[in-house]
Amino acid sequence: MAWRSSGSTNAELISNMLRNGVFNSERVAAAMTKVDRANYVLDKGDAYMDSPQRIGYGATISAPHMHAHAAETLLPFLRPGARVLDVGSGSGYLCAVLFHLVDAPGSQGQGKVVGIEHVPELVERSTENLRRDGLGRALDEARIEVVAGDGREGYAREGPYDAIHVGAAAPSMPKKLVEQLKAPGRMFIPVGTSEQKIVQVDKDETGAVTETELIDVMYVPLTDRPQ
Ligand code: SAH
């Protein structure tokens, strides 16, 4: 299913994914169409392939179908004005998609996305990527912030968050991230080592937490910072 959706333009990639049933939400499609993946990859020739790609420093930008799946899973919590944390933000691609979802009409400029990434060079590069993709003003106004740090700790300063996306696999559920979810709120996180599953963590209005396993996946692990 993954490769079938590749396109020759960004718009074609998104519409192929929609047509192939990779995801269904028009809101997600509109947000992904605003983000040109060519601004976030090293090899521009492969920008619209539905596959992960190396972005340097041992990191990869996830495949578009995984980004679509993540955004769609979090969608009920990505209302205009919501606050979002993207852990292991890498290229910055998903920060951009999430930002377009929460910076929609009705947000009154309140929507905010924080990316946390432990490779400082990627923090810098992703910030450049976001600027190239037209999001310089959002960065200047701190409506998108990319910070260097250990994502396993979350980023309590800007929390709690309506939605948290984790882009690398945790060996077990990171407590601090669950703490930093709003009530209600939802997290999308790959959990496991040799076998991994996407876990959807829901916190309800009372603060009660439930975990639902979604699909088997293969993500790079959340690690200590490379020396
Ligand atoms: N969603 C990103 C995924 C990047 S791959 C994208 O599509 O571009 C996973 C990222 O997690 C890598 O950039 C890696 O450097 C980062 N990472 C791994 N362990 C981390 C940690 N403990 N804290 C913060 N970032 C981490």
Word description of this protein:
The chain has 227 residues and is an alpha/beta fold. The chain has a single domain, classed as Vaccinia Virus protein VP39 (Rossmann fold, 3-Layer(aba) Sandwich). 29% of the residues lie in helices and 26% in strands. The protein contains six helices and nine strands, in the order H-H-E-E-H-E-H-E-H-E-E-H-E-E-E. A seven-stranded mixed β-sheet has the order 5-4-3-6-7-8-9. A two-stranded antiparallel sheet has the order 1-2. Helix 5 (120-140) links the parallel strand 4 and strand 5. Helix 2 (26-34) crosses helix 4. The N and C termini lie far apart (37 Å). Residues 59-62, 88-91, 93-94, 116-119, 122, 150-152, 167-168, 220, 222-223 line the site of S-adenosyl-L-homocysteine (SAH).
- Largest sheet composition: 7 strands, mixed
Count of the separate structural domains = 1
Give the structural class.
Answer: alpha/beta
SSE string, helices as H and strands as E: HHEEHEHEHEEHEEE
Shape estimate? globular
Overall helicity: 25-40%
Q: What is the C-level CATH assignment?
A: Alpha Beta
- Portion in strands: 25-35%
List of distinct ligands in this structure: S-adenosyl-L-homocysteine
Number of helices: 6
CATH architecture: 3-Layer(aba) Sandwich
Averaged pLDDT: 96
Alpha-carbon distance between the two ends: 37 Å
Unreliable stretches (pLDDT < 50, length at least 5) are none
CATH topology: Rossmann fold
Radius of gyration: 16 Å
Strand order within the widest beta sheet: 5-4-3-6-7-8-9
Main location: cytoplasm
Keywords: Cytoplasm, Methyltransferase, S-adenosyl-L-methionine, Transferase
Enzyme class: transferase
Pfam family, one: PCMT
